Amino acid sequence: MSDKFSLKNYKTNLEKFRVNKNNILIATRGSLGKIGFAGGEEKNCFINQRIVKIEVLENLAIPEFIYFYLTSIINDWLKIKELKSALPYINTEDILKIKLLIPPLSFQNKIINYLNSFKKICSDFNIGLPAEENKRKTQYEHYKNKIFNYLESNSYENN
């Protein structure tokens, strides 16, 4: 028996389970609602039945924008779902029902650039300033949530 993983060892075509660049991954059990973004290099990774993979239609939305959007709303969405079980879970159908308001691609790019710039500032504080880093992370989450709340409500609340 070989120690190496090979797709040839499987009768089922596993391509639909492969994680591709720019896929968004959502945990449906265990770390319920944790979201990951497969940016960067292609790797030979595959999802299992506890992960939902989202492939964004890039002519309609920028994958990184959808990732930021989902990370902004997932906790509130999970609260609304009122998952009352010893082992709570969400399924693919639930995730497909999430409604997202998608602005033009140019506006999505502006949001991505803003959030990435702010994220970089936060990580630069990592060198010897953990308290400041935590403040910046909180500030980053605040502004990210404000941006997506604005998109959903078309109003800006100055709290």
TrEMBL record:
The keyword DNA-binding applies. Pfam families: Methylase_S. GO terms for molecular function: DNA binding. Residues 8-131 form the Type I restriction modification DNA specificity domain. Coiled coil: none annotated. One of its GO terms (biological process) is DNA restriction-modification system. The keyword DNA-binding applies. Transmembrane segments: none annotated. Keywords: DNA-binding, Restriction system. This is Type I restriction-modification system, specificity subunit S. PANTHER family: TYPE I RESTRICTION ENZYME ECOKI SPECIFICITY SUBUNIT, TYPE-1 RESTRICTION ENZYME ECOKI SPECIFICITY PROTEIN. The methyltransferase is composed of M and S polypeptides. SUPFAM superfamilies: DNA methylase specificity domain. Belongs to the type-I restriction system S methylase family.
